[in-house]
Design a protein that fits this description.
With 480 residues, this protein is an alpha/beta fold. It has 2 domains: 4-256, Rossmann fold; 278-479, no CATH class. The protein has 20 helices and 20 strands. Strand 2, helix 4 (70-78) and strand 3 form a beta-alpha-beta unit. It is elongated. 34% of the residues are buried.
Length: 480
């Protein structure tokens, strides 16, 4: 059970910004020419951004801090550091119910919204029964399948930043917020999708280990808003001090990590690639479906000896095996119960009765699989399976690792290799053709193309959509 103090820390995404970092952020804003009339910190915590802003922007007429946590408000009231600046006002309010218009008024003066929103997701809040959530709406416009498979999970700061962006559309102003780097890109995507005004955007990477003692890819996200400008790109800096950057932005509707490189190679882009990258098998019951061979004996994840026919048993390569180039041998195996998605499984009873008995013995575990994709499908169903699963040659890459390491993989023990669902692969019947495509994919040109599209800070940086966007025929024509 989470203790009360720990729960509060999780609930409010409590990463208090050190004063030294708040001061560095304000210094960067001054370098960028920011000189606001009104400064707002919508979740001011202990007030470090308020203190830094009051010292850094002497010409600001009003500095407003908003905070819901009464413990922080008590600490601010007892502090002497705000007593001698009559521009500062601290209010007890809930961000999720803020009326921005009444908060700022109808003034045309420039506004700076600064701070550090909570670094938690709505699912984390739900796990501790937190009430510190916005009203539930499908603000990301996900369809039913995306919602089922987890894309409806979002960072609370994403929703909060969207509210600030909407408010700043009505005036010239600035946003300067610490957030996860992935969230900054989502906000850029939202601004682009809604065709909102944006004059300039940049991110500056923050050393979260140094300032917050956590390992999170985070940044200062800076936006300048102008009621007449729509520039949907973002300059990315490695830290607050450097002047070197690369530019992410939109090419048609695609968010590109490195616009300069991509524009040189855009002729290689094709949304309808001739070959299709597939993901490995999804079964969601490793203790039953995945086996280990020890001294020629199969053992399942429950520690049981498994005596079944070899008919439906195939060698398995996990994503880590592919990433580490351990693709020649394996002690892992997997039960592949279908040849294609939706295939009836009753025929296993006649073809391999011991396998059927094994599956029925563990039917309760298989029935407990939570994903809705298994509902209204045959017993013991799997997903990510088709004729491509059983080809003798494959080119594979693990989506979880931060390197473009492609592997050319053949059979093991005269059976086609099966991958788990962290792996993407191309399938081939012909070894010569597979080798030709492997040569293309490992070329510097292919790596440059993919690197211009991949955001390496994401949990699964390599995605099938990115892999499928390379026109391998056009690449071959270019190289040969």
């Amino acid at each position: 059970m989470i203790r009360k103090v720990e729960k509060a820390k999780v609930e409010y995404g409590d990463f208090q910004t050190p004063l030294v970092l708040a001061e560095k952020v304000c210094k960067k804003l001054i370098e960028l020419g920011v000189n606001p009339d009104i400064i707002v910190e919508p979740t001011c915590g202990l007030g470090n951004f308020i203190e830094a802003a009051s010292n850094s922007f002497p010409s600001a007429n009003k500095i407003l801090g908003i905070e819901i946590n009464s413990n922080y408000l008590d600490a601010i009231e007892k502090s002497t550091k705000f007593l001698y600046d009559d521009r500062i006002e601290i209010r007890c309010k809930d961000f999720f119910y803020l009326d921005w218009s009444s908060l700022i008024g109808s003034s045309n003066k420039e506004v700076l919204v600064i701070g550090n929103f909570p670094w938690v997701t709505n699912s984390q809040q739900g796990s501790i029964d937190s009430a510190n959530l916005p009203t539930k709406t499908n603000f990301q416009n996900h369809n039913g399948l995306d919602a089922i498979t987890g894309k409806s999970n979002f960072d609370i700061s994403e929703w909060m930043l969207i509210q600030v962006v909407k408010f700043l559309q009505k005036r010239d102003g600035y946003l300067a917020m610490l957030c996860k780097t992935s969230v900054s890109r989502k906000i850029l995507g939202y601004i682009h999708s809604q065709k909102l005004n944006l004059a300039y955007a940049a991110t500056y990477k923050i050393d979260t280990q140094k300032y917050f003692n956590v390992n999170v890819d985070a940044c200062l996200f800076f936006c300048k808003f102008d009621s007449n400008v729509q520039s949907y790109f973002c300059d990315v800096f490695d830290n607050l001090e450097t002047s070197k950057f690369y530019r992410i932005g939109y090419w048609n509707t695609i968010l590109v990590k490195d616009l300069v490189t991509f524009e040189k190679l855009e002729n290689l882009y094709d949304s309808k690639s001739e070959l299709k990258w597939r993901s490995g098998i999804k079964h969601d019951c490793a203790s039953v479906m995945e086996l280990r061979r020890i001294d020629n004996t199969l053992i399942n994840g429950l520690g049981e000896i498994v005596d079944i026919e070899e008919t439906y048993v195939f060698p398995l390569l996990k994503g880590s095996y592919v990433a580490q180039n351990q693709t020649k041998v394996t002690d892992r195996y997997i039960l592949v119960t279908q040849g294609w998605v939706g295939e009836p499984t009753e025929n296993i009873r006649n073809i391999a009765p011991k396998t059927w008995n094994y599956l029925e013995k563990h039917e309760k575990l298989l029935d407990k699989r939570k994903s809705k994709i298994y509902q209204n499908n045959p017993k013991f169903s799997i997903f990510g399976v088709g004729s491509y699963t059983f080809t003798p040659w494959k080119i594979a890459i693990c989506g979880l690792y931060k390197k473009l390491n492609f592997r050319l993989v053949g059979k093991i023990s005269d059976k086609p290799i099966i991958f788990d669902d962290t792996v993407y692969f191309l399938s081939f019947d012909d070894a010569t053709l597979a080798s030709k495509y492997f040569e293309l994919l490992t070329s510097n040109l292919a790596k440059d193309f993919y690197s211009s599209l991949i955001f390496w800070d994401e949990k699964r940086p390599i995605k099938s959509g990115v892999l499928n966007s390379l026109n391998l025929k056009a690449l071959a024509d270019f190289l040969f």
